[in-house]
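Before the break, one more example. Copy the sequence into your notebook; we will annotate it together after we see the structure.
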Amino acid sequence: MTLRLALILSAVAVLLLQSVCDAATHPDASSLFGSRQVLLVTSESWDATTGQLQLFERESLSSAWIPVGKSIPVSLGRTGMAWGIGLHAVPRNATLEKREGDGKAPAGIFSISTAFGYADNDSIRAFPYLKIASGLECVDDPLSSSYNRILDASAHPKDWNSSETMLRPDGLYAAGAVVEHNSDPVSTEKGSCIFLHIWRGPDKPTAGCTAMEEGALRSLLSRLDAGRKPLLVQLPRAEYQKLKKEWVLP
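Here is what the structure looks like once it is written out:
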């Protein structure tokens, strides 16, 4: 074997190994990350502050997506949407990427990890549930070591100057769920504390979360099933149409 051929074969082997490693660490997007339950939110444009949410489910990864119930009107960020950090790859030509304090809801594909609320868990049986208690805060100070984490403030040395109190007098977090945006790993200044939660009203945008009427939200939360690996997919309608086939979206 010549030296040139040996070098070529060595390079090919490295590329193949890298491909195997990448496949092992990055789930196959063609199966939509093994999910059988998707909350699909679409809006009219990147700047839109409202949208529609439709729940879809499927029996297996090879089954067709079936809509469940009626679509739900939602409020989005006060400045619309921008690409967030989740399970998806941000398009190379993206010009809008979410930043802390920009008032934008994250666009992309995100896991939903935990439901939460002020009451005892009386309706959410197949999904993790966090009862909100006094002292729980979500840290949104990018300089904090606890940035983008919900924690008991009394049990942690305070190194933050800004946070969201989870037990709110306005009741917006009386029911909700944690959207895993910018969570593993956490990137400074890329946005924090993204939830599904109760809205102030149909014409009232959020600071970056996705909000809806309380009854509709509670009904949605009661259907969440950890075994189905529920995802939140949020996109302006034009992006949804472009990515629907590639991402195997409903």
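The first strand starts at residue 37 and ends at 43. Residues 1-28 have pLDDT under 50 and may be disordered. Try to locate both features in your own notes.
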